[in-house]
């Protein structure tokens, strides 16, 4: 992209090459596209664009109609197909130097081992399902159809900073949101284990482990984009948790520009000013912080999922390793114990059944000494 002096400020220009753009207003960027494109480009109904005839091609390329017709034949999609219709797409020639075929071959070979090792197949199916489950989906209710010219933003939500593994570089969720959606729609779509924690020690009465998960108890959260903290203030118990940071920044001249606070529920993505590729922040449960990056902004296409109720739409989710019960080694752990006289490890993980069988008698009386905490496995989201 050429950056001339007269360029519209709402066309993203890369501030640091290959890293992030300058600040753009999302909605205005969308308007620029909608002003320049034709209705047929924006249309979400069946592909109405017809292929140009030989005459048009000849005129565009400045060649004879004969050459144009030959070119069209050579460049047609049909010419990409293998001549031999009977060819088995799963058999890849040994001497093939195409990298893509090499990758495909590896995948096919791994799949053959699926019978012995269940994991690669399950992971592959899972990733594939997440990515494609909504491609081209139409809404059941026509009122839920995504509007023509709607913007689609791709967001990477990284692992929480408190995670030791993957925290810097691996997005644990990639989602598509619509420009007209509220920030709170994204907030509600982010699943993080911190929201599912149950606080407290329950060894004396495990059945009392409250149904109330942290998400229901502590509802405050914010997004941070370009100097503004967008706080979730939808419920009476919500607090402006950005206040401490803003006060800290203002308490002395710390070299930050003035931060502002706003209500998350009052803003859509179209209202935002952002840099594409820049690391922003999502913070919830007090200190569970995730880096959030907007990696792409584009117009909706007829082959996208057109059911707006399915947005924010997850298209990638990292596969979580589940931690199994120490006893049965089969079920996902639900309890973690400390100082446990009956356990070989400290901490030790148990499923609900094994935990209760080992630690309580038939009347539910506690056996031995231990501390017990409800455990929520990140793999719950797989
Ligand atoms: Zn979190
Ligand atoms: Zn078990």
From TrEMBL:
Pfam families, alphabetized: SNAPC3
GO biological process: snRNA transcription by RNA polymerase II; snRNA transcription by RNA polymerase III
Superkingdom field: Eukaryota
Gene Ontology cellular-component terms listed: nucleus; snRNA-activating protein complex
Cell compartment(s), UniProt: Nucleus
GO molecular function per UniProt: bent DNA binding; core promoter sequence-specific DNA binding; RNA polymerase II cis-regulatory region sequence-specific DNA binding; RNA polymerase III type 3 promoter sequence-specific DNA binding
Keywords: DNA-binding, Nucleus, Transcription, Transcription regulation
Function: Part of the SNAPc complex required for the transcription of both RNA polymerase II and III small-nuclear RNA genes. Binds to the proximal sequence element (PSE), a non-TATA-box basal promoter element common to these 2 types of genes. Recruits TBP and BRF2 to the U6 snRNA TATA box.
Assembly with partners or alone: Part of the SNAPc complex composed of 5 subunits: SNAPC1, SNAPC2, SNAPC3, SNAPC4 and SNAPC5. SNAPC3 interacts with SNAPC1.
Family that this chain belongs to: Belongs to the SNAPC3/SRD2 family.
Name of the protein in its database record: snRNA-activating protein complex subunit 3
Species of the source: Hymenochirus boettgeri (Congo dwarf clawed frog)
């Amino acid at each position: 992209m050429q950056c001339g002096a007269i360029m519209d400020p709402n066309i993203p220009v890369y501030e640091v090459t290959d890293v992030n753009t300058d600040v753009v207003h999302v909605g205005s960027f969308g308007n620029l596209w909608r002003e320049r494109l034709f209705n047929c480009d924006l249309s979400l109904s069946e592909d109405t664009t017809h292929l140009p005839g030989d005459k048009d091609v000849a005129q565009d390329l400045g060649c004879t109609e004969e050459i144009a017709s030959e070119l069209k034949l050579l460049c047609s999609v049909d010419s990409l197909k293998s001549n031999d219709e009977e060819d088995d797409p799963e058999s890849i020639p040994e001497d093939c130097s195409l990298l893509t075929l090499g990758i495909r071959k590896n995948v096919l070979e791994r799949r053959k081992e699926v019978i012995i090792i269940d994991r690669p197949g399950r992971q592959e199916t899972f990733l594939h399902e997440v990515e494609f489950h909504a491609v081209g989906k139409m809404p059941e209710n026509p009122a839920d159809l995504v509007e023509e010219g709607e913007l689609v933003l791709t967001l990477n939500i990284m692992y929480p900073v408190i995670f030791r593994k993957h925290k810097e570089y691996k997005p644990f969720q990639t989602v598509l949101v619509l420009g007209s959606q509220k920030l709170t729609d994204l907030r509600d779509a982010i699943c993080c284990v911190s929201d599912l924690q149950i606080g407290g020690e329950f060894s004396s009465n495990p059945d009392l482990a409250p149904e109330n998960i942290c998400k229901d108890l502590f509802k405050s959260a914010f997004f941070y984009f370009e100097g503004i903290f967008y706080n979730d203030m939808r419920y009476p118990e919500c607090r402006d948790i950005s206040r401490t940071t803003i006060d800290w920044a203002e308490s002395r001249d710390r070299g930050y520009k003035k931060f502002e606070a706003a209500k998350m529920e009052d803003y859509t993505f179209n209202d935002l000013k952002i840099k594409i590729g820049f690391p922003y922040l999502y913070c919830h449960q007090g200190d569970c912080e995730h880096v959030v990056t907007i990696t792409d902004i584009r117009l909706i296409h007829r082959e996208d999922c057109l059911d707006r109720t399915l947005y924010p739409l997850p298209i990638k989710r990292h596969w979580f390793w589940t931690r199994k019960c120490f006893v049965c080694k089969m079920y996902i752990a639900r309890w973690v114990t400390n100082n446990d006289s009956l356990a070989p490890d400290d901490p030790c993980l148990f499923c609900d059944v094994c935990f209760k069988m080992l630690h309580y008698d038939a009347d539910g009386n506690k056996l031995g000494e231990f501390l017990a905490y409800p455990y929520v496995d990140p793999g719950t989201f797989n």
